Automatic annotation (TrEMBL):
Residues 1-44, 81-112 are annotated as: Disordered. Residues 108-157 form the Cyclin N-terminal domain. It comes from the Eukaryota. The lineage of its organism: Eukaryota, Sar, Stramenopiles, Ochrophyta, Bacillariophyta. InterPro entries: Cyclin-like_sf, Cyclin_N. This is Cyclin N-terminal domain-containing protein.
Length: 161
């Protein structure tokens, strides 16, 4: 049978699927909806000129108030000067081993212990890398900790100058 359509009446749009929780045709929303990001202009991406400017600024800061010195070399020079001074006295030769106190040249919270030297520092950094590897931390964390230790020890040695 042929049906005639009324040309003045448009067909009605299809009805949307029911969104009732018991409906099998309901659409499910994603549990976590993450909006799309346009990474072409991300704030952490710098042009070459911006990166060069930032590096120049960081270097300027390092040469200024954040400048660090070589605390181990200062300690060794102070220790050598103390040894020279103690050997110049005639009665100091026999007492040199007993009275030699390198901690007077380098402040240390534990006066009976020697300060950090190159070998000790190397062992500490190697140990901290092993700990970082074992804990699956970034080795950058261990390197940053060593840098902070160096800055602290340098500030202690500069404080008593």
């Amino acid at each position: 049978r042929i049906t005639q359509t009324n040309p003045t009446r448009l067909p009605s749009p299809p009805r949307p699927a029911s969104r009732h929780p018991s409906s099998p045709n309901r659409r499910r929303k994603a549990a976590h909806s993450i909006p799309a990001m346009d990474l072409s202009h991300a704030p952490w991406q710098l042009t070459e000129d911006e990166a060069a400017d930032r590096i120049a600024s960081m270097r300027k800061q390092e040469d200024g108030p954040y400048r660090t010195g070589d605390y181990m070399a200062r300690f060794e020079r102070a220790l050598a000067a103390e040894e020279r001074d103690s050997t110049s006295h005639p009665f100091a030769a026999g007492q040199q081993q007993q009275q030699r106190n390198p901690c007077r040249a380098f402040p240390n919270p534990l006066p009976q212990s020697l300060p950090v030297d190159a070998e000790c520092r190397s062992k500490m950094v190697t140990w901290s890398y092993r700990v970082a590897d074992y804990c699956k931390f970034s080795r950058d964390t261990a390197a940053h900790a060593a840098s902070l230790l160096d800055r602290y020890l340098d500030s202690e040695s500069q404080r008593d100058r």
